[in-house]
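Support request from a user on the community tier.

User writes: "When I paste my structure tokens into the form, the page sometimes reloads and wipes my input. The last time it worked, I copied everything first. Here is what I submitted, just in case something in the input itself triggers the reload:"
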């Protein structure tokens, strides 16, 4: 497992991440974990800003909250209509909705490191 984690970090450090989260406290705590995996993270505070940031940069992965003001995570992904892999985070179980929109994995909050690592590993396999 330790070697797999090292390999995962080696790969993710080369990826550019768009992280979309409206709740400042959740964003800060999640960023602590994300910073262990990604060197290049662009942050947006809602789906509308997420679209703006997406159009300004070239991303390898999107991690987005589900429920946000202005434009939720699923609506944002529908508007982006991109092949960039996405992980959706939510405090509520919306799994039936997210599977329709090309979401590669769905993680319930609060984010647990093992659950996140497993989801991230699956997505990275598709990116490689």
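"...and here is what came back when it finally went through:"
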């Amino acid at each position: 497992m330790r070697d797999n984690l090292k390999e995962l970090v080696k790969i993710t450090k080369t990826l550019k991440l768009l992280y979309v989260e409206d709740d400042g406290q959740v964003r800060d705590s999640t960023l602590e974990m994300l910073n262990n995996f990604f060197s290049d993270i662009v942050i947006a505070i809602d789906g509308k800003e997420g679209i703006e940031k997406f159009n300004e940069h070239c991303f390898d992965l999107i991690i987005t909250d589900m429920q946000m003001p202005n434009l939720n995570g699923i609506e944002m992904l529908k508007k982006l209509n991109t092949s960039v892999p996405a992980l959706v985070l939510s405090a509520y179980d919306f799994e039936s909705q997210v599977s329709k929109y090309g979401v590669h994995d769905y993680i319930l909050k609060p984010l647990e490191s093992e659950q996140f690592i497993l989801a991230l590993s699956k997505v990275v396999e598709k990116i490689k």
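Agent notes: The reload is a front-end session timeout and is unrelated to the input. Residues 2-116 form a domain with the Rossmann fold fold (CATH 3.40.50.2300). The first strand starts at residue 16 and ends at 20. Escalated to web team.
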